[in-house]
Fold each of these.
Amino acid sequence: MRARWIIAAIVLLPLLAATGYGIAAQYPLIDKLENAPPRSAFSRKLIADGARLAAIGGCHLCHTAPDGADFAGNRPIPTPFGTIYSTNITPAPGSGIGQWSEAAFARAMRAGISRTGRHQFPAFPYPHFARLSDADLHALYAFLMTRRPVETTQLPNRLLFPLNQRWLMTFWNILFFHPASSRRDPRHDAEWNRGAYLVAGLGHCGDCHTPRNLFGAEESGRKFAGGRGEGWTGPALPAAPTPWSTAQLFHYLRHGWDQTHGAAAGPMQAVAAGLGQADPADVRAIAAYLSSREPRTALPRGHSGNAEPAAGNRLGAALFAGACARCHAGGAPMLPPHGIDLRLSTAIAAADPRDAILTVLGGIRQPDGRAGPYMPGFADSFSDRQMAALLSFVRARYGGGPAWRGLASRVRALRQGRGQS
Amino acid sequence: MITLTVNGRTHRLEIEPATPLLYVLRGELGQNGAKFGCGFGECGACTVIVDGEPVFSCLLPAIAAAGRKITTVEGLGTPAKPSPLQAAFIAEQAAQCGYCTAGMITRAQALIDRNPSPSESEIRAWMEPNLCRCGTYLRIIRAVRRLAEAWAKAHPGAPEEASR
Amino acid sequence: MSAVSPSRRAVLAGGGALVIGFSLHRSAVAQDAAAPAELPGDLAKEPLLDAWLRIGGGGDITVFTGKAELGQGLKTALVQLAAEELVVAPEMVRLITADTALTPNEGYTAGSHSMQDSGTAIRNAAAQARRLLVARAAGLLQLPAAKLQAKGGTVVAADGRRLGYGELVGNDLLHVKAAPQSTFIAAKRRRLIGEDVPRIDLPAKVAGGAAFVQDLRLPNMVHGRVVLPPAYSARLRSVDTAAASRLPGVLKIVEDGSRLAVIAETEPQAIRAMATLAASANWDEAPDLPDPANLFETLAALPAETVPVHDGPGDMPSGANVLEARYRRAYQMHGAIGPSCAIGLFDGDALTVWTHSQGVYPLRAALAQLCGLPLAKIRCIHREGAGCYGHNGADDAAADAALLAMALPARPVRVQWMREQEHTWEPYGSAMLVHVRGAVDALQHIVAWDYTVRSSAHATRPGGAGNLMPAWHRARPIAQPAPQPLPLPEGGGDRNAVPLYAIPRLRVMYDFIPAMPLRASALRGLGAYMNIFAIESFVDELAKAAGAGAIDFRLAHLADPRAKAVINTAAARFGWEGFFRAEGHGRGFAFARYKNLAAYLGLAVEVAVDHESGGVRLVRATAAVDAGEAINPDGIKNQIEGGILQAASWTLYESVRFDRSRILSRDWSSYPIMRFSQAPDAVEVHVLDQPGQPFLGTGEAAQGPIAAAIANAIADAVGVRMRDIPITPEQVKAAIGV
Ligand code: FES
Ligand code: FES
């Protein structure tokens, strides 16, 4: 995977260099503020609105390191080009954004250009944030400028040459960054339109749910056809073995699980945790918009739990009976969505076993010991061969599509990759 | 017929392949160490070491354990001759009721086996799956650190682990 | 069976001296005859020395306690006491704990009473036995007793002659009533008291010995499992037992009203049959639980009996600075790591039950009623279970085992609950409400205090069978008797409701709610947890209003030097004065004397509050405890440390979830408790030893103070006062705002 990117860059580099270096420097520095605006510069309501919007944007997620101060950056973000460390967005004057005027903030959000005129990498989703309304930007600014300032030492990104050259972003932007402000679709109501705006903009759902091209840009023609996030599949939206109603999707986005679709896993868990703090009306709007979309890739509805397709896989059947059945077979004592009926699981229905493998390996647990969906990981319990037998049993019995191929080697590869990110 | 190797002894057992190892250990082999706590993989009371990894025996079908090296708390030492880690648990009084203790020891042993001198934060992260209701977490960390420090003392050249 | 339990015969066979003196019924008789009240500890209940201590012809020593090991280190402490006073090595002492056939009736192991009641009795009995042994040796050797010394199981004369305890004891030496006074081993000759003797129960627990009731394996034992109704209100409408009864290994299906159970040869077979049976059962249930969104409004509206706890003027003097506050606490569970378990064996005539109940004698009485057997035909033997400190499912599981044993005579039936059964059916610690008004004057004195605490019962332990849950579900049910408030001075919901501070105008009331929206009973500390939380939070609020410091304000209202000592020690060791307040961090203090008559505890903590999430982390805690004479200081530390962690978990994370009909907290993911990553960095406990002073119960001393200290530290860190337990991130975040 990584090799492809490097080749692409090497092919492109001379081309871009020939086009000229000069264009890169066209963004001026925006004067720094003498002092960060005081809390009193913003109304309480504005700050609270900003907080609820930031929860949709997931600012905290990327800009807070594990065990680090809130919004103080330095969280490693794995990308195909290497590791990027997020920046400090507290109002610390030195290492944070304390000297950023609202204009500088708005330019960074919408154009990916920092206050000093430097390019940002699109790991920061400015191509999405470009759609943000002035009002929402204003609230976000108010929220961020009233966080606790924390000075930090920015960790240097670890990107492969030549991808660490920021000026290259000029060309990337020319090729792939076509900012468009959201236009209202008169065929739909205000809620739907708000949802469409949040999904395309602040929520930057396409980051994980839209496939990317060779250059890491979302493929414009294949919006929400399924992508990749932190090693997990971002399934096509809104594909699932059973259709999503607005209410179901709302519940899922707010709580990280839904009775009829299961629990969020992987990076989606944190996204849902954030949406739990967002304005419920906004989350409902997101749910209304997404559930109204025609699924691009319909996932086949699972079997009826009929054992026949799995017959012959005695090992898989025994492993399922001993390890999974107490929660995933009928009469499970646990609460929803514990022990979700696997016929409803998107991961089991998916053509690619990636998410199913990752979930069985690592399980699902809530951060900070909160109540919520739980599943133990089985990485240490099962060998690759056993894992493959178990998954092919589950796929045959509960999944709708054709058998997954090469499971043991997929398990081995994902097991090894797991430790890294 | 399933063949299990527990604490170095091989047992041939006429059991359902799906039977969780926990019940095989307690029911067929008469062991006490691994405990039933939840049966959901949520508490770690049933932890045993399988091929060097700490595993919830309540969710490990016997068939999956066949042919692998299983170590339970009984395999580490005896009440009369406790292993170094078991002795450290006694010395630190790292238990109250002791129901969680065997699972704590097996999980900690798997850590010590791969890293003889873990730091406090490594111990905390490693032990996270196991629950104790009596509030003995800090004493458990001390018991493991006791071993870690003894090891570091005996190996002065080895890279010193940051303690916390 | 002798492999797992010292049968009465085995115990008696060893001691020629004792066979005559002891009979099963004697304890009960002795109890009826009013014993001289001045005897120390539970000698008052059971004055005969050989009820506590027996020495066999071979010199073997057996000590009996009616109390049970709950993980508090009781066994070790009792052996220390007996071995000290008998001047023998601890290994020479065999200890028999709660067993209705063998040990004195000491009621419940609860309320941090064990050392006070049983420890005191055993120490005195051992000291008096030593005196008797020496006196008899003096007679035999024709020497004055002063020339003799007890040592290592013998009485030695200066000339080297020695007589073993076994030779001396004869058949009646210890079959005498205790004297009110004892002479203890002099302080300078002590080897064991005050020492950190390693726990005698740990070697088995760390190495897979048979340490718990869950580990008992009796010959021919079979396995029972119960199917419990899905809700309190659920009644069985129909069930199809056919499928379950055809499963391999199934020996018996019990259907008795709404009570369903199975017995099978092996445990996995029993579990499978249980699941099959459960799947075929249909229930009628009613939405009769309170709306969780309005739980406290519901509790406030329920009829209550008002118990005056401290009757005084409740009005606030004019001119003083008056504050008012309300505190609330959610339902919280014991949540032992091992679900309840028991084994029953009915031989066609008599019933034996191995149980981790905290009261084998009261359980025996309840089982007699439940099973229709005379008391004399039932024996309850305590075996350890998973720790939880309180009335959990232990007694109910014992009732299950008894009923199943009666259904399948001659085979020991082991019953263990499933995790979700323990979570949903154990009796919880009651939700509580406190309303308090207080006034401070310009001199920084509390001048008035008017306090009302409201809760359901804190004790519904078996007394009769109606408190055993399985009794409710039978075809001929026994209803739960109306709960009663526990009497003072220890109290239930009003435990520790009276502040220890000197307050001129003081009124304390207890609104006891006879109804129990959720099943409730004794959870470690009972009402003390909530009352100390409220009192010690409100004292900080008053101190702040008066402009006084938390430590000085408390000291100024206390006269007892021991109270002051724990406060001063905790503050000094914590570094209260020089505390560096890092961003988001704060310090908090609390003090209490448990039940106002047991151990004193001063406690300082540091917390960190995350501004964005509202999450609170207990960073460190420093406690000073005065538990009277310290038998095993490390044991006391472990109790306090464990109490701090457990109650910090209650305070920050725990509340029972439910909907209008069912309990929703069914496992650890729906009822999370503290894990390793949330444990504090450090907990320090300083034991202020008081040699020669009576033992003061310690086991529950930390529960209330830690809750208040955390809330006080949050107030110090971010300036908001949290009055609802648990103190969730959502609440803290809402209070501190964006
Ligand atoms: S019993 Fe296996 S994890 Fe709890
Ligand atoms: S010591 Fe009791 S659960 Fe850990």
Amino acid sequence: MPRIAGNDVPDRKKILYALQYIHGIGPKFAADLLAEAQIDGDVRANELTEQQIAQINQIIDTNYIVEGGLRRQVQQNIQRLRDIRAYRGERHRRGLPVHGQRTRCNARTRKGRKKTVAGKKGVKG
Amino acid sequence: MGRSLKKGPFVDEKLYRKVEKQSEGGRRTPIKTWARACTIVPEFVGHTFQVHNGRVFMDVFITEDMVGHKLGEFSATRTFRGHTNKKEGIRSGR
């Protein structure tokens, strides 16, 4: 199992798709990366030479922020919004949608499972 | 959609002039404003604004981190203190 930027990357998939298992690398970055390293995207991940893996690692290290570093960066951005008490930070703090979506109904991804309130319209008993 | 770069950020002219005047004079009193849509530019840092939220003016002290945001983002227009508690009939939390 090749180790690229952490431990990820499944063995038997084409390297173009295997790379996308890394947090922070999607279709575009994977293609860009392979073009820069001049590696054929159709090669299976376990067929890469040590050298090629090292090369990919090096390109990721220099050009991309992935995995833990990326997660930290996202968290920091959110933390900044909270610290300056911006509206968006407030929404993050309350666990409500941030981009102005309706909350009268839906918004379940942010709000979590329904909390049933007795006596409310549509609820029996 | 973002704003066209050609135009640059929206800054309320009158407000900007007031800030400049204060910076020169050195005395910094809170500036009352209704210009919630005005982008915070670096010159605003260290000033205090009183941003209208439709009802009252909220004090907003500008720090460096706030640059690039709008004044209105720091003056909430809604107050929600939680739903009423059916049994006790009062609002929980505060």
Amino acid sequence: MSRANLIAVGSSPLGETDLPGRDLFSKALAEAFEELPDPADVVDGLYVGAQSERYENQIMQGTLMAEWAGLRNVPAERVEACAAAGALALKNAVRDVRAGVHDAVLACGVEKMTAGGTEGATNALGAAFERALEQRSGITAPATYALLAQRYLHETDATERDLGRIAVKNHRNAAANPRAMFQQAVDIETVMDAPAVAPPLKLYDCAPVTDGAAAVVVANDEVAADLRSRPDAIHVAGVGSAANNLAVAERDLTFVEGANVAASTAYEDAGVDAADVDVAEVHDAFTVCEALLAEAAGFAPEGRGIETVEDPGDRSAGWTDVRINTSGGLKARGHPIGATGLLQAVEAYEQLTGRAGDRQVTDADTALLINEGGVADAHTVAHVLTATDRGE
Amino acid sequence: MTDTDSTTTGPLAPDDITADSPFTLPGFFDALAEGRLVAARCTECDTHMLPPRPACYGCGSRAVTLSEQPRTGEVVSYTSVNRPPSAFEDLAPITVAVVELDSSARLTGRVAASLEDVAIGDRVELRVRDPGTVGIDPDFDLSYEEEWPVHVFEPI
């Protein structure tokens, strides 16, 4: 089996932009290939994560992105699992490189969420939920996660303020991330005073509607060595994915089982433990998710995921020293649905190659990514990434 | 809660899967319109599933049968959809809950009460409404959904 490496990354501006999806992709591609030959001379396949054709009335995203990258007559496929689409693109690229199907593959993701306004985004995202009983009851993404949050607050000692502090922490992290949509801190009072979207979730508990794209190049050792010096590449050491229930009603509301399975599979694949992870990008589409995922990933004891906001030395016994969502997470870096899983990979790349500037975690050599689609762990994709110099 | 007169214990044969059977959505909603809430019940591990489906997510078995459900249960979690999808605008804010029926089957539904009047553990009863009376924009319905009843929970 070949080893898969991440050798270059790029992202578009994130937020409400004047660029349509294909142009956002052009931005991400241009950055990823700044120091590389033409994509056609590097990659021989492409996967693109895209949540919905409702935003721009465009499917065939594989063909479109390949064309924009100058790739012709190569496999180029769109993958979809709502917000897990980006990590699915990465997973498929890694699988192809590991299997020797391709020497290098472009994994990208794009979403032009603001095209139809907030109403358009609400309606497009609504398609991720079970249709017969749940969509027909009028639910939305914030409402499904509010059902998780309400139960979490009921079963644990956590409070709404504890959830709010996760948003405060992620805004503080984003303030040090030049890629982030919201590069400014917010205080807890602002968070607590914001309007309720779906109680107990308020505005700042919810990731924003974001336009954006990301692109990463996955290559085997030979291509990686040919194009990049060692410190400029990282290994994709572990992959795991799991589909759980579609309906919110039928899941365990306070334990994201599918995420636990996906993360455990990725750890085993990489030969690491949760305690080895220095930095993690987890899917904080809503603040409660970060707490739930910290527990499911083995970082935090049951019911103590809210301590993600604390410095490692101040956390309860049983917590690891991991730093979570140094990018600002979905909440503050931004959440362009199909691109999010790859934006998580961009942050891991920067952390593990020492490029993370003011938010650099000292000696970070192992990263976990958890990207989810549907409500909670309806679909989860996890990756473990390691610095090339780790243990060698 | 008793199993219906269905003799199916799965795996379903192709001929079992017809629009008359509650194992399909048209059959499930036809039964609901007549006042019967029908779940699939796994005969291996007793997981109840709404709507019915051909395999059990709990244990993977296809040994599923149909089981009429009690209408009463309790609130497991709840919230208010303050900004609903556009087709539900007239209903906002919408109180919704995950309800566990007395059989252990779980489903999500609207609650005919304001958020302040709902709490975890509250007893509720499922009611069935004619789709035209609920206030959902009819354009929301797909062609095959137009006659399907809409469920709602009432506090008891």
Amino acid sequence: MTQVLVLVEHDADGLIDSSRRAVTFARGLAVANANSKVAVCVIGEVPTGGAELASAIGRQAAEYGVASLHVVPFTGYAPLAWARALGQLADSLSADAVVAAGTDRGSEVMAHLGAITGEEMVANCFAVSRSGTHEWHLTRQRWGGSLIEEAWLEAGRALLTVATDAIPPASVVEPVAAPLELELEAYEPQLADGDTSVVATESPEQAGGVSLASARVVVSGGRGVGGVEGFSVIEQLAAYFGGAVGVSRAVTSLGWRPHSEQVGQTGTRVTPDLYMACGISGAIQHLAGCQSAKTMIAINTDGDAPIMARADYAVIGDVNEVLPALLEVLRARG
Amino acid sequence: MRILVCVKRIPMVGGRIVLTPDGGQIDTSMLGFTVSPHEECAVEEAVRIVEAVRAKGGSGEVTVLTLGPPEAADQLRDAVALGASKCVLLETDREWGPIATAEAIAQEARERGPFDLLLFGNEAADSGDFQVGIRVAHLLDLPVVTGIKGLALEPSGSAGSLAGSLPRASARREYRGVEESFELGLPAVVTVKEGINLPRYPSLPGRMRAKKAVIDSLALGWQGEALSTESLRVPTVERRRAELLGRGAEAVPALVALLESLGLLS
Ligand SMILES: Cc1cc2nc3c(=O)[nH]c(=O)nc-3n(C[C@H](O)[C@H](O)[C@H](O)COP(=O)(O)OP(=O)(O)OC[C@H]3O[C@@H](n4cnc5c(N)ncnc54)[C@H](O)[C@@H]3O)c2cc1C
Ligand SMILES: Nc1ncnc2c1ncn2[C@@H]1O[C@H](COP(=O)(O)O)[C@@H](O)[C@H]1O
């Protein structure tokens, strides 16, 4: 029998979206290998975090076709300790694959696990199949999703992180004979002193306004905006929609706006209903951060800019002419 | 204060990735090369730390290392232009995976060390493996923090100073809207993200120094790896032609109508 172990993350409401996607990915592997099961590992204070949270996670795990739910009681986030615990649990379950969402924590813990055991850790996978006991076929993202690689991995056990934006979360439609809520099984790892020497202290961020990552509307400006002053209209437009300001790397490199507003491969990934790209050429590294937008409007003086091939709607023109005129009409409507 | 910074040469692709006819690699014949923005910030951070140490009368130097083709010397020179002082090129004849890369870097760090701080990018721009820094830390038995957006070195003990005994590092990053911070003693490995600083533009004297920089190179033999690339492809996105709403301010009525149809106007 094959076991796939998934490290999941949760917030106060239960499993986070990327973790559901990672479980969906793992289930794909289990289904392709008849007789396989998905086990899930939660590290944290779930048992003490209240019966409601435990029950929410148990229900979601069942919904997503998980066979067993293992909880490692632990206070705080210590990457090395988490990796040690995950590895020991994987050993005790004889897991054939260990999977985590490619989040900051997921990637970090999986890399530690690979470093502890000396095994390969393959990042950003979105398809996997097994052929024979030592061969895995993987499809994964490179260049922040702008390139796709097909690869072979020779390993007894596969350590994988999941490119979650390429996997829609899918619950199991009819959980045949599955329990409606999974029991949490506690697992106590053997930790060494050094495992907890690097540990995170959390403090609420003093971020004000709408967060870029979750904004429904993002009005983004690039080098074409021309300078610091031009962003005043972009700010007003974003505020009009209750949205957030985004920028390209050209803008942060010039020091016009802070890096916290940068959209792209080395900035924030956004998933708004509307993305307005103003004076942005559409380099792949920028698109890596905004291609999940439902609708994209580009405003650019150059009708042949690469962004035009990715946007749904385009205005050919000077942003410093179009945006003030737009804002005026919107304000006149009230 | 001795700092090692690791950077990786990558092609500077713009609007679209073009592959070689056999699909085996990125066609770089028309492209320039650079390093990941994360790594550029790592170089800047290292230079700033050493500058601060020197300002207090201490000594320090930044060594920059890359594993790649002979041409990666260009990226080492770029780092010298920003203020790095020593260059190490581990020459390879093909792309190496993260395990082999980390082993080679750790070996070199042992030989040229000890280093007080080893800085990496959070992930390389091309492979995005998110692990070389962590693996090097394990091989050297050092503490490691990743994805760092703010780094401060504080004297350890009341009598200590940045220039004297080894300081402690306090590092912070973001996690789902919350700020996380870590305290760790040096020597340590830190992987950084763009935004930790705004890298300077190279100065004219910097560029002169870069031209004359001595590159210490060492050729490495490939050992074979468990992960092998079968093929690469550019994802098929619909290359839709955007619907043109109009030109200049004349497009505003069409824009407003569109925003209305998207349900964004009250
Ligand atoms: C490894 C790596 C990672 C990167 N990560 C990121 C990232 O996270 N985010 C990111 O954005 N970039 C990133 N980049 C940089 C990226 O490659 C581009 O250089 C950058 O996105 C360009 O920004 P831009 O479109 O604002 O500027 P430009 O490419 O200079 O484009 C300006 C555009 O404005 C138009 N324009 C000019 N004047 C006007 C006007 N008056 N009105 C309207 N339009 C006008 C021009 O036609 C042009 O299309 C990365 C690069 C690398 C190598
Ligand atoms: N070939 C290389 N030469 C030097 N440093 C590297 C190399 N590959 C990766 N690194 C460093 O390790 C970091 C993480 O890379 P990766 O694990 O491949 O995503 C990069 O940002 C670099 O700082």
